[in-house]
Design goal:
Helix content is 58%, strand content 0%. With 83 residues, it is mostly helical. It has a domain of 45 residues. The protein is elongated and about 70 Å long. The chain starts with 6 loop residues before the first helix and ends with a helix. The model has no long low-confidence stretch (mean pLDDT 76).
């Protein structure tokens, strides 16, 4: 065969290998579990300064922390007979 493509390639691209896709997805999941995400709280003051933040500004940027603060303040007021 003078330069002709093998029969399987002549028909076009091969369908994706399902087992290969599953293996790559599984390995990606394992990799992610071994290396948890870094949060803003984990950064040093210097690293925060490099991205233009201070430690005090983190609470304003993360909605979950704001909800936690609101919940804690409400509990405090309720325990003191307020509201």
């Amino acid at each position: 065969m003078d330069g002709a493509l093998p029969r399987q390639d002549a028909a076009g691209p091969r369908p994706p290998d399902v087992l290969g896709l599953l293996k790559r997805a599984w390995l990606a999941l394992l990799e992610r579990r071994q290396h948890p995400r870094v949060t803003l709280q984990d950064l040093s003051d210097r690293e925060l300064m490099d991205i233009g933040l201070t430690r005090g500004e983190i609470d304003y940027l993360t909605p979950q922390r704001a909800i936690d603060t609101l919940r804690d303040n409400t509990r405090y007021l309720l325990s003191r007979g307020g509201m």
